[in-house]
Amino acid sequence: MAELGDSSDMNSSETSRRQLHHQNRTIARLLGDTDLHRLRKDAPSALAHLRLRAQWLSNSEDVRLGLEKAEYLFNEVDSVAKTLEELVEKRKEKLRDIARVKALEHETEQVRFFLSQFIRLFYFTPHIGVQRSGDGAKNILAGEPPGEQIGN
Known about the structure:
Helix content is 70%, strand content 7%. By secondary structure, the chain is mainly alpha-helical.
């Protein structure tokens, strides 16, 4: 169960994402276990049947303790299973958040790339944008021929 620990100390989002995927698969395998499904489905009726049988031996301390232990163990297993189901949902949400952040990072990089290309094209192409000279920057309007500059 150590692999199910908190991933807040992860250094990179990629490692965190991989660990979350691994943890989700591990938890899903645990929750998908046929014995666990059968126990959670059949235990309430089995416990009810044991309670009926225990009434026949109501004076037996062993029967009472056995029934209490069976109920306690079932409640513990059911509680842990519910906690794991909640954990799976939280991890799925966190994975969705990580995917959204990754998509935003990708879009940000694209915008930065396009802006750098635009700046390079607009500011450093002689017939478009700002032409640098010893007098300072002079604006060249789009309709003007490349050699002409708008006044000081």
